[in-house]
Specification:
Blueprint (H helix, E strand, L loop, with lengths): L7 E8 L3 H12 L5 E4 L4 E3 L4 H5 L9 E3 L9 E3 L3 E5 L4 E4 L4 E9 L4 E2 L7 H7 L11 H10 L3 E7 L11 H13 L6 E7 L8 H14 L2 E3 L3 E6 L2 E6 L2 E6 L2 E3 L4 E2 L2 H5 L26 E3 L12 H20 L10 E6 L5 E6 L19 H17 L7
Parallel strand pairs: 1-2, 1-8, 2-5, 8-18, 10-11, 10-16, 11-12
Antiparallel strand pairs: 3-4, 6-7, 7-8, 9-17, 13-14, 14-15, 19-20
Helix pairs in contact: 1-8, 4-5
């Protein structure tokens, strides 16, 4: 039986219209790719790092979202639908609206997805306001409302080692809240608890040291080797080596559990140990079994922290490697660079840059970027958002 015909083909097809997808499409055009297609159903584009500042009362939602149509490069053919299957042998992507799109090379940048089902009751708690999360964009203002309203009681913040987008930046709303409570004179009346399911908050020793300094400064209790297993009414259910525990809370901020988009595993693009995320050579960003498929961002099993700073490096490598692979040249290598900006107050920030071996890789030589400073806060709050909208999404960085 002959294969079903395709409705459209592109020299390079990009799946996903977030940071990675849009900037890849834009850079491909700038590097001379004659025909770029984009598959993404989103109507709104979010600059997600600012969601934490919304939760800290330092930013409005309107500053971090724009119509998707305004950021898709005009010369990119935008398929306003979702990818539901990839056939690597036929080099075809099937979409939710039934469209079949052929490709020469395919760049997968679909991101990760919240999976509240992993923690029973958590999704419902965020929806009805019993819990909050800056990671849920539309609900981010609720974080600041509850922080302002809390004058005493127990505030619980969570961090976990599972796949997540910008994992360490979940510390931002906690530190900004503590700084606000200190300024309001109520911090001593609030029991702030950080629940961490491992023995370390960060894999890099120098960054861990900086974090611990500020945890101690605010008097935050750290519950190590403790996982959140459920949320019931205004009680968070924990599991530690000592057994289960029920901890009542007055404020609960959650880092969502994540999962990979289902079509990756359904299409056989994952591998043993990737937990449904796309298998990929972590240095060349090429799929190990399908040489015309490339994987970047939160949807790929890259063995490094999932951050926007890391994604910028990945985009440059993947665009260059598509060119090199077509010419039979040696592929460029991505060293796993990533960056986790952590606000330590409402006006200072630690800028930890590191690679997949947990080695510090500062962009500015001889400067301790991990040390919390006002200048890094200004960069993160104002310079990077401007760079994102005007440079990164246009393929200029």
């Amino acid at each position: 039986m002959a294969p079903a015909p395709v409705d459209r083909s592109h020299d390079v097809l990009v799946v996903g219209g977030g940071n990675g997808g849009i900037s890849t499409a834009a850079l491909l055009l700038r590097r001379g790719c004659p025909d770029v297609g984009l598959v993404d159903p989103s109507e709104t584009h979010w600059y997600k790092p600012l969601q934490n500042y919304v939760g800290g009362g330092l930013c409005d939602l309107d500053e971090l979202r724009r119509p998707q149509a305004s950021v898709v490069p005009p010369d990119v053919h935008w398929h306003r639908t979702a990818a539901v299957a990839v056939d690597p042998a036929a080099q075809v992507v099937t979409c939710a609206d039934g469209t079949r799109i052929g490709y020469g090379d395919l760049v997968l940048s679909p991101g990760g997805q919240h999976d509240w089902s992993q923690v029973p009751g958590a999704g419902e708690a965020v929806t009805d306001g019993r819990a909050v999360s800056t990671y849920v964009g539309e609900r981010a203002p609720e974080v600041w409302r509850q922080v302002q309203a809390l004058r005493s009681g127990t505030a619980v913040f969570t961090i976990h080692a599972g796949p997540s987008s910008g994992r360490e930046t979940v510390l931002k709303p906690m530190f900004m809240a503590c700084d606000h409570w200190r300024s309001a004179g109520v911090l001593d009346d609030i029991d702030v608890v950080l629940v961490c399911d491992t023995g370390r908050i960060h894999p890099v020793a120098r960054i861990e040291q900086e974090i611990r300094t500020h945890l101690a400064g605010y008097g935050i209790t750290v519950r190590e080797h403790t996982a959140v297993v459920a949320v019931e009414d205004r009680v968070v259910v924990l599991e530690s080596p000592d057994g289960p525990e029920r901890l009542p809370f007055d404020l609960l901020h959650l880092l969502p559990p994540y999962r990979a988009p289902a079509f990756l595993a359904d299409s056989g693009l994952d591998a043993e140990g990737t937990r449904g995320y796309a298998a990929v050579d972590p240095e060349t960003l090429q799929h190990p079994a399908h040489g015309r498929i490339w994987c970047i961002g939160d949807g790929a099993d890259l063995g490094t922290a999932r951050t926007g700073g890391g994604l910028r490096r990945q985009v440059a490598v993947v665009v260059e490697n598509i060119r090199r692979s077509r010419r039979g040249e040696e592929l460029q290598r991505y060293d796993g660079y990533t960056v986790g900006p952590i606000t330590t107050s409402r006006s200072r920030l630690s800028l930890g840059e590191y690679d997949r071996t947990d080695r510090l890789t500062p962009s500015i030589p001889l400067v301790d970027t991990v040390r919390s400073r006002r200048v890094w806060w200004v960069v993160d709050r104002y310079l990077l958002p401007w760079t994102y909208w005007h440079r990164i999404l246009k393929g200029r960085v």
